[in-house]
């Protein structure tokens, strides 16, 4: 059972105190950490006395906070194991169904399925009989899909053979497989901060030690992007085994890495013997900017059907040299036994026509992004809204370190958002909030109205500190 020390929990809690009773603030903040995944269900929390000492509060306060969490089902007492964090069934976000839920879930940066998926699924089902005589366990990918993916890289200017493509269970699976296979516990792995939280989970899950490079969202006040000096420093000081970056419409900032910096990144990785992995999951989601080109052939590319076609198709892939692809395929079996054939057939149907699909996707993203920006600008003028050329989310600067209290207050208004610290390597970003714009414009406008009400509540509790720049 995973155990969280009092020091680690104190670090995760950050500035947890509000103006209300300490026991309530502490319970609320632990609940948020659990709901947004920073504490995983089943983790043993520190003993009351240790946590009280680390936080500088009385043991009664911690005991009362734990009691509150027990009442709400977020903590269970296990004989011999102390207090164990738990996720009550009701707090798992419900998947969007045919009946529109009253709650608005802005924790996921994704669009609904593209209409083309339905026809493709019908054609894929018609193709299935050709595959049924086989056993269906597929560790590398169907030849037709590997070819279609290879053709797309070749069309983008990176000549690719099907043997250089491995089809996976989504991009997240590809990232996890790369981390487990290309690193050994204790290796340093360069990551972005803020970054995609599940990639960071994958790095840590493989025993890697993250080395963070800051990324800033562009705004009217400043250009965004990767901190060039920090990038140089991270390579030369840490000599990471793997560097994982999202250079095209980075999640959550929407930043796009300029061509000169991409070249420098490749040079640095080559010089320091680092395996460079670029995650292109959101690369095709340019709204005001074109799809960035591929990297050279020695860079591992990760891709996915989840954002362009549908997240319900659990299909992703990676492009690497053929020997690495074989090596990775050989290491899949301890965790899973292959990619579903039917889903692969669907993606193979859509992929050759992806550019047509993307025209509609980009128009959809533009309308959604602009609706959210417009409503936020009208209702929350003190927030610094980013300039987002593409991707699926706004990384909003709140002007005050209130992201976690805001996320909690927003839940009371029926809006689920992930607080900024979920996207940092070390729990920073309490001044930021990620707002995905994958929902329809009316829902996003309603979410912004509710967020404004929630913000009014948290602002009335804590006075605004003067805004200053934080680079973490
Ligand atoms: C950068 C990045 N990588 C990977 C993923 C996961 O992709 P998939 O659904 O294909 O596993 C996401 C999803 O949000 C993402 O933003």
UniProtKB/TrEMBL annotation:
Gene3D superfamilies per the UniProt record, alphabetical: Type I PLP-dependent aspartate aminotransferase-like (Major domain), Winged helix-like DNA-binding domain superfamily/Winged helix DNA-binding domain
SMART domains reported in the protein's UniProt record: HTH_GNTR
Keyword entries, A-Z: DNA-binding, Pyridoxal phosphate, Transcription, Transcription regulation
HTH gntR-type domain ranges (all copies): 20-88
GO MF: DNA binding; DNA-binding transcription factor activity; pyridoxal phosphate binding
Family annotation (SUPFAM superfamilies): PLP-dependent transferases, Winged helix' DNA-binding domain
InterPro entries, per the entry: Aminotransferase_I/II_large, HTH_trans_reg/aminotransferase, PyrdxlP-dep_Trfase, PyrdxlP-dep_Trfase_major, Tscrpt_reg_HTH_GntR, WH-like_DNA-bd_sf, WH_DNA-bd_sf
Entry similarity comment: In the C-terminal section; belongs to the class-I pyridoxal-phosphate-dependent aminotransferase family.
Protein name (database record): Transcriptional regulator, GntR family
Source organism of this protein record: Kineococcus radiotolerans (strain ATCC BAA-149 / DSM 14245 / SRS30216)
């Amino acid at each position: 059972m995973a155990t969280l020390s009092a020091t680690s929990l104190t670090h995760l809690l950050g500035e947890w105190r509000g103006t209300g009773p300490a026991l309530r603030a502490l319970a609320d903040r632990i609940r948020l950490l659990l709901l947004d995944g920073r504490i995983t269900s089943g983790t043993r929390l520190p003993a009351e006395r240790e946590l009280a000492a680390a936080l500088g509060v009385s043991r009664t306060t911690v005991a009362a906070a734990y009691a509150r969490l027990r009442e709400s089902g977020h903590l269970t007492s296990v004989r011999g194991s102390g207090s164990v964090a738990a996720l009550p069934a009701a707090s798992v976000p419900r998947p969007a169904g045919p009946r529109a839920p009253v709650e608005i879930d802005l924790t996921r940066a994704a669009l609904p399925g593209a209409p083309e998926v339905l026809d493709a699924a019908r054609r894929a089902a018609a193709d299935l009989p050709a595959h049924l005589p086989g056993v269906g366990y597929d560790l590398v990918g169907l030849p037709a899909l590997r070819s279609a993916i290879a053709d797309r890289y070749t069309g983008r200017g990176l000549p690719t053979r099907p043997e250089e493509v491995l089809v996976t269970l989504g991009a997240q699976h590809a990232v996890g497989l790369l981390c487990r296979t290309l690193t050994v516990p204790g290796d340093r792995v360069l990551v972005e901060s803020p970054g995609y939280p599940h990639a960071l989970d994958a790095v840590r899950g493989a025993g890697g030690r993250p080395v963070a490079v800051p990324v800033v969202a562009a705004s009217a006040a400043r250009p965004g992007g990767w901190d060039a000096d920090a990038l140089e420093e991270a390579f030369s000081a840490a000599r990471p085994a793997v560097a994982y970056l999202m250079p095209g419409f980075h999640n959550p900032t929407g930043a796009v890495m300029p061509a000169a910096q991409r070249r420098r990144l490749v040079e640095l990785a080559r010089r320091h013997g680092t395996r460079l992995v670029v995650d292109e999951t959101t690369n095709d989601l340019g709204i005001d900017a074109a799809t960035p080109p591929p990297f050279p052939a020695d860079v591992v590319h990760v891709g996915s059907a989840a954002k362009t076609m549908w997240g319900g198709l659990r299909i992703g892939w990676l492009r690497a040299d053929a020997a690495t692809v074989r090596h990775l395929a050989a290491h899949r079996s301890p965790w899973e036994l292959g990619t579903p054939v039917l889903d692969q057939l669907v993606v193979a149907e859509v992929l050759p026509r992806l550019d047509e699909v993307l025209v509609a996707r980009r128009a959809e993203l533009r309308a959604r992004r602009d609706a959210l920006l417009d409503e936020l600008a009208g209702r929350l003028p003190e927030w610094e809204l980013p300039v987002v050329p593409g991707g699926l989310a706004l990384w909003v600067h709140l002007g005050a370190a209130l992201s976690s209290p805001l996320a909690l207050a927003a839940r009371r208004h029926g809006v689920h958002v992930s607080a900024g610290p979920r996207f940092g390597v070390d729990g920073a970003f309490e001044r930021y909030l990620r707002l995905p714009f994958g929902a329809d414009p009316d829902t996003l406008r309603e979410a912004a109205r509710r967020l404004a009400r929630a913000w009014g509540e948290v602002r009335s509790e804590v006075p605004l500190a003067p805004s200053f720049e934080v680079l973490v």
